[in-house]
Structures are given as C-alpha cells and as structure tokens.
Amino acid sequence: MKLSQYAKQQGISYSTALRWWHQGATHGYRVVNLVKEIGSGVNDNRPKLLSLLRDPLITRVVVEHKDRLTRFGFRSIETLLEIQGRTIEVVNPAENNKVDLLHD
C-alpha cells in the first residue's frame, strides 16, 4: 500500500504518516476505530472520548500528542487505564511542549 493511501485510510495527513513511518511508530497495529472530536482539550464534556474510555474492549489508545487527548489529567487517565490492563501510547512525546499550553 502506498503511504498516501495509508494516510487517507487512517484519516491523517501524508506528512504525519511519513513521520510515523520514519519513527517506526505504526508498530504494526491494526486501527480498529479512528476517533476525531473537535473541541477543547480542557473541556471534560467530550462524548467520543468518554465513550472510548468506557469501552473495555479498547485496550490501546494511540494519540499523536498527549495534549490532543487532554490538557490536564493525562497521567490520571493513563493510570486508571493501566489498572484495567489498558494503555495509552503517545506517538510524539517529544513534541509535547508546555509552552503551547500558554498559547491556549
């Protein structure tokens, strides 16, 4: 499969797919569900995220940046999922910059 086709299938930009490929970040995962929710990372009323967190069949949540999941409380969510045997994987942890929070 061409990288451009993969990017379109996953609902990501070509540049993100290329970066993932260079980083080896796809890890051979099969994407079962792609969730996009437009809203603030500070807002805790996010139906799609809450539905994802409630579903015990979802064992791994992969996010590009941890602040795309939530601005605050990431470690708490991560810990609660770990207790259930579930994980959150952040693809680009180095790109999470605390300075960005000040701009929000």
Description:
The protein is mainly alpha-helical and 104 residues long. The protein has 2 domains: 1-29, no CATH class; 32-103, 3-Layer(aba) Sandwich (Rossmann fold). It contains 6 helices and 2 strands, in the order αααβααβα. It has helices at residues 3-10, 14-23, 47-54, 66-69, 74-83, 98-103; strands at 60-63, 87-90. It has a two-stranded parallel sheet. Helix 1 crosses helix 2. The protein is globular and about 35 Å long. The N and C termini lie far apart (38 Å). The model has no long low-confidence stretch (mean pLDDT 80).
Task: Write down how many β-strands occur, each being a DSSP E stretch of 2 or more residues.
Answer: 2
Q: Note the run of SSEs as H and E.
A: HHHEHHEH
CATH fold group of the largest domain? Rossmann fold
Highest CATH level, the class of the largest domain: Alpha Beta
| Largest beta sheet: strand ordering | 1-2
Low-confidence stretches: none
Please report the distance between the alpha carbons of the first and last residues: 38 Å
Number of H/I helices: 6
Rg from Cα: 14 Å
Q: Give the overall average pLDDT.
A: 80
Instruction: Quickly count the domains.
Output: 2
Class by SSE composition = mainly alpha
Helix content estimate: 40-55%
In short:
The protein has 104 residues and is mainly alpha-helical. It folds into two domains: 1-29, no CATH class; 32-103, Resolvase, N-terminal catalytic domain (Rossmann fold, 3-Layer(aba) Sandwich). It is built from six helices and two strands.
